[in-house]
Amino acid sequence: MTDTAIAPTAELVKLENVVKHFPLRRRGFGRREFVHSVDDVTISLEGGRSLGIVGESGSGKSTLARIMLGLQEPDSGQVDVAGVQVTSLKRKDDKAFRRKAQIVFQDPHSVMDPRMTVRQSLTAVLAQHRIGDGPEREARIVQALREVGLEAEYLDRYPADCSGGQLQRIVIARALLLEPTLLVCDEPTSALDASVQAKVLNLISQLRRERELTMVLISHDLRVVRLTSDRVAVMYLGQIVETADREELFTGARHPYTLALLAAATHVKGDEQVVAQGEPPSPVHPPAGCRFNTRCPLATDRCREEAPQLAEVAPGHQVRCHRWSESRELLAEITGTEPHDVNDGV
User: Fold this and answer.
1) How many beta carbons lie within 10 A of that of residue 208, not counting itself?
2) Which residues neighbour 316 within 8 Å (Cβ) at sequence distance 6 or greater?
3) Assigned superfamily of 11-229
4) 230: number of CA atoms within 13 Å, CB side?
5) How much is the pTM?
6) Where does the ABC transporter domain lie (predicted)?
């Protein structure tokens, strides 16, 4: 099952040349080192559309999402969301921006105060933003729970009384209480049992359609992105290496790293090892040239010396690779198989 696209509107999210490096603790008198979490990322998303950002752990996905929401300040670059210049957001305007953009985190237990009932937690969100009075707030939170498939009886429960899936539904309801324009979901199902992951993802997709939300979904799993996103960006070691509309990416991927993720997602024996060899390099000392060159079977001297730029290879399809035009054919020769498609389900 794939999501139904919503007619796009004007550009709602725009990041330009965003950089974020985290300093490491200096040892002795040596040069200070930095984790290259996000390196010169430029990306945009139209209103009403959904973007999936996918990559291995440590690729910079979550940092990029936090920068997008003003929860992390970039070292440089511009971030505009829903008409707000996030990088120059003043404290007095922060509350108004929070009503426009909300996030659903990976672990629902980290969001909910264990000492408060669900009713208290949800009501506190409305009270903080001075929305409604007592009866109106009660009506809003009851309706919010029903939207995520839970009855009002959950309002008197504590987080410990809820299953992981139920609690994530409550966190989604909490995020939607302020009726945001943008919803960012950071690995929203990775902490859940496999049996409830698909249900939560279907719920997120349904709510996005019904509310005509703009959504960014962070995941390490291409199958999750396939289910929820209109457009996909692939990150590796702090950089976007490929971006395209969903079907274009899943049927016509060109970057060897994207093809490695597709092979891993379809569990084709041997493909993962051949296409993406070894572990990712340290983000403290990323390789010269193409950052994927240490794991790529197609790497040449040029790849090891000259950093490729993100180039448009088809309308709306960008790839950061010197050998993108021959990547699929060469990898098919190496692995002895054609690139595989990813199942819609999870």
Assistant:
1) 23
2) 244, 245, 248
3) P-loop containing nucleotide triphosphate hydrolases (3.40.50.300)
4) 19
5) 0.88
6) 13-262
